[in-house]
Amino acid sequence: MTTLAIETSCDETAVAILDDGGDILASEIATQIDLHRAYGGVVPEVASRNHLLKMRPVLTKALEKAEASLANIDLFAATAGPGLAGALLIGNTTAKSLALAQGKPFVAVNHLEGHLLSPFLGDPRGVRPSVALVVSGGHTLLIHLRAFGDYHLCGQTRDDAAGEAFDKVAKMLGLPYPGGPEIDREAQAGDPRAYDFPRSMLSHGNHDFSFSGLKTAVLYTLDKLDRPLEDCRPDLCASFQEAVVDVLITKTVRLARELGEPCVTVSGGVSCNRRLREAFQDRAQREGIHLLIAPPSLTTDNAAMIAYVAQLKAAHGQFSPLEEDVDPNLRLSSSH
Ligand code: KG4
Ligand code: ZN
Fold first, then answer.
1. Does an H or E element contain 76, and which?
2. Helices (H) and strands (E) in the chain — how many of each?
3. Hey, where are the domains in the chain?
4. Which pLDDT score, from 0 to 100, does residue 41 have?
5. What are phi and psi of 95, to 5 degrees?
6. CA 295 – ligand 1 centroid, Å
7. Whose C-alpha lies nearest to ligand 1, atom 1?
8. How far is the CA of 111 from the centre of ligand 2 (A)?
């Protein structure tokens, strides 16, 4: 089914079109980052208004790129949550209106399921059992993915999400929003062993994470710097990043070992991080783990991952009524 999906859960207006075989014909993203940067974070109402402004041009561009017209689309989809209520409503209402006008079905998609399954997009073998690490701005989840729609949450963060920790620490270091890519860039010139930051909950038997202690440790270190911040920033970034990467990889690999699961997937905005990708690849190679990480273009928010899940749901007969509401707090649950 040729599928058109819309993603507007936060500050990206995204439209993607996938063909019958699941290949990406178009994946357009209009980011609002410059608009929100002045406020140091996303302002919900500004985001909603901008989705409204960007929706039509992004939609038109995606159709042009895919050389398709609305009449060629067999299935419409949109993110239903989690995310900002007003922002979600724009994408949702647009996709539902198009479905209604074209007389085609609609599928509501959980944003987290989009991230979770994004490493399988374009893989002819499809969704496979794995231990999945989802690391985004709002979530840090360790999931035993047993099959499409069969997800067991094994661990999550007790406080900040990994991306949130990147953003908050970047702010402390005087770097602009969003901080993840900034820390990634600064860290390239830094020494990851310059500062010995804590690896929280590494020795705990459970699979949960905590990043608030690490954030506080960076704050204390900043109070005691003996050189100007600008001089120390690359080392601070590299050391902070190393601590996050170390905990994420160690806990994911430990769960994979415990469950005897040979495949590990990593997804969400933080999986764009160069050090995380490189260190995970090294570790997977040493331990004989089959690692799947989505290409960088599919790690941060995009509509291709939403279209992919929509196709899988449609194939399982899981269509959504047009009356269905959005849910800003939608959780990831098994569909059977
Ligand atoms: O998945 P995503 O685009 O949106 C959410 O669903 O939250 O993730 C955004 C998060 C932000 O916190 C951002 O700082 C982080 O992903 N991020 C990164 C990198 N690129 C984006 N964190 C570390 N390194 C990066 N290269
Ligand atoms: Zn996301």
1. strand 75-81
2. 10, 10
3. 3-117+298-315, 128-293
4. 85
5. -65, -40
6. 14
7. 269
8. 6
Looking from the CA of residue 178, the nearest atom of ligand 1 is 14
Which numbered atom of ligand 1 lies nearest the CA of 9? 6
pLDDT at 114: 98
Q: Which residues contact 40 (CB under 8 A, 6 or more apart)?
A: 171, 177
Residues with CB under 6 A from ligand 1: 10, 136-138, 163, 166-167, 178-181, 184, 268-270, 272-273, 300-301
Q: What is the pLDDT of residue 68?
A: 97
321 Cα–ligand 1 center, Å: 31
pLDDT the model gives residue 263: 98
* The ligand 1 atom nearest the CA atom of 272: 26
Pocket test for ligand 1, best of 32, 79, 136, 175 (most atoms within 8 A of CB): 136
Please give the pLDDT value at position 33: 87
For domain 3-117+298-315, the CATH architecture is 2-Layer Sandwich (3.30)
Helices marked H in the chain: 33-37, 44-66, 85-102, 111-117, 162-172, 179-187, 212-223, 229-259, 274-287, 304-315
**Which portions of the chain are predicted below pLDDT 50?**
336
Task: Check: CB of residue 131 under 8 Å from CB of residue 145.
Answer: yes
pLDDT score recorded for residue 335: 66
Residue that the structure tokens 């953003």 belong to? 167
Among candidate residues 244, 275, 228, 250, the one with its CA nearest the CA of residue 168: 244
How many Å lie between the centroid of ligand 2 and the Cα of residue 50? Answer: 18
Inter-residue contact 20 to 90 (CB < 8 Å): no
State the pLDDT at residue 202. 84
Q: Do domains 3-117+298-315 and 128-293 have the same CATH topology?
A: yes
Q: Whose CA is nearest to atom 7 of ligand 1?
A: 137
pLDDT confidence of residue 38: 86
Q: How far is the CA of 268 from the centre of ligand 2 (A)?
A: 6
Which of 199, 198, 194 is CA-nearest to residue 225?
A: 194
Q: What is the pLDDT of residue 173?
A: 97
Given CATH 3.30.420.40, say whether it is the number of domain 128-293.
yes
